[in-house]
Amino acid sequence: MSKSGLAADFLWGGAVAAHQLEGGWQAGGKGLSIADVMTAGANKVPRKITDGVQAGENYPNHSAIDFYHHYKEDIKLFAEMGFNCFRTSIAWTRIFPNGDEAEPNEAGLKFYDDVFAECHKYGIEPVITLSHFEMPYHLVSEYGGWRDRRVIDFFVHFAEVCFKRYRNSVKYWMTFNEINNQMDYMNDFLVATDSGLVFRNNEDAATREALMYQASHYEVVASALAVKMGHQINPDFKIGSMINFTPLYPASAKPADILVAEKMMQRRYWWSDVQAWGRYPVGMEAYFKQHGLRPDITAEDRIVLQEGTVDYIGFSYYNSMTIAADGASFKIVANPTLETSEWDWPIDPLGLRYALNWLQDRYHLPMMIVENGLGARDKVEADGSIHDPYRIDYLRAHIEQMIKAVNEDGVELWGYTPWGCIDLVSAGTGQMSKRYGFIYVDKDDEGNGILARSRKDSFYWYQKVIQTNGADL
Ligand code: BGP
């Protein structure tokens, strides 16, 4: 153990996702993904999901920050910070442009060979997400996304090709990024990015809910099949779930608020229950039965779920939310005790310690914090320096709680990869101005800029944190 109490081999790195930084949206035979048809939005201005690429629209993910051509420079900067791991995703459409092909695209496979080789050159362990909001648009338009059981086989084929190709260059994997976002099935962005569900015919809430739960079932089956197959390809693989963990605090001591918080936590985290336990929680089985949901489940599916449980819990933590009973339903309310970011996300470091305790007690599995960070505007000074004390303060406060959870609460934590270690395209808004990075990238929301990379103050701070294994914050 080191001075901080973290294991000597604790994984320190950063996290990104292919669609948010690579660019090269048509390079090397890549196909159109759901992310490629999302226009730029802003805070409180939703992104549009167009039917294919429409002339005159701004699609920020098409060029992003051009990691596709800058990856050697960027990985060298990560190594300068001292990363021993780096989380990103494999763009599904680089490997299978349409998603339903029999043979993979060699140029796409080769690109990730090169990226992973560059990581290993510096002793950086790749941590790879298979599906991070990037499913082939062809599967969305021709199959309706994950509402079609056939997409299970397409995903498992994609996973098998990746596991075999990168058998000796990637050890840590995750199947579906933030698979539980779609709990909010009325949010077009969340169901499109999680399950490729696009609603263009005013589908009502009941229709949307039914499709989301059935699609989610196919995804957890696909995840379990991939986990089992991955372990057969390389028994040393560590394959995790990946959820967004946002604690739902009761708004008051009123029993109704306590109960609604408990019920909505069950409703928000059943995906990881299935992935960790190999079965559905009884509360969700009861809900499905009561409402006639998830009708297509087979005895074989249930066996698959049991055989494909995950090795660890990967999760993102940004903030907590506060929930109050609202008649027979609920409402999210402000937490008057917390500050919020410019994008209205509460800032709650203690919530990360709560998250680690809750997840440890529920799953008794190792964990990785694979996203955490503060989206904020940064200013480039006349001398080129970029002072981001607000980002350092946010990350310091969260790392402090992470270390307490390890030292005082006994949680088993493998690593920490703060989100957006280099500025990239925001998923929710499509903005560049919502910056997370230790590295500034010269590009604005309108696409102007020369993509020059610059070290922020937080770059040097995080370098020191890693060098001292979390002892000097
Ligand atoms: C999570 C996604 C990431 C990243 C992050 C920050 O939902 O897993 O892809 O986008 O949120 O959110 P945003 O980019 O909307 O600020």
Low-confidence stretches: none
**What is the C-level CATH assignment?**
Alpha Beta
Task: State the distance separating the first and last CA atoms.
Answer: 17 Å
Integer-rounded radius of gyration: 21 Å
**Going by CATH, what is the homologous superfamily?**
Glycosidases
Element-by-element helix/strand order: EHHEHHEHHEHHEEHHHEEEHEHEEEH
Number of helices: 14
Please tell me what the overall shape is.
globular
Enumerate the distinct ligands.
Answer: 6-O-phosphono-beta-D-galactopyranose
- Overall number of strands: 13
| Helix content bin | 25-40%
Structural class: alpha/beta
Classify the beta-strand content into a percent band: 5-15%
Give the strand order of the largest sheet, numbering strands 1, 2, ... along the chain. 1-11-10-7-5-4-3-2
So, CATH architecture?
Alpha-Beta Barrel
For this structure, the CATH topology is: TIM Barrel
Taking the sheet with the most strands, its summary is: 8 strands, parallel
Mean pLDDT: 98
Number of structurally distinct domains: 1
Q: How does this structure look, described?
A:
This protein has 473 residues and is α/β, with parallel strands linked by helices. It has a single domain (11-467), classed as Glycosidases (TIM Barrel), CATH 3.20.20.80. The chain is built from 14 helices and 13 strands. It has helices spanning 18-21, 67-81, 92-95, 106-121, 137-143, 150-165, 188-195, 205-233, 255-277, 282-291, 299-307, 349-363, 389-409, 457-467, and strands at 11-12, 85-89, 125-131, 172-176, 238-244, 248-250, 312-316, 321-326, 329-333, 367-371, 413-416, 439-441, 453-455. The strands form three sheets. Strands 1-11-10-7-5-4-3-2 form an eight-stranded parallel sheet, covered by helices on one side. Strand 8 (321-326) and strand 9 form a beta hairpin. The two termini are 17 Å apart. The model has no long low-confidence stretch (mean pLDDT 98). 6-O-phosphono-beta-D-galactopyranose binds next to loops.
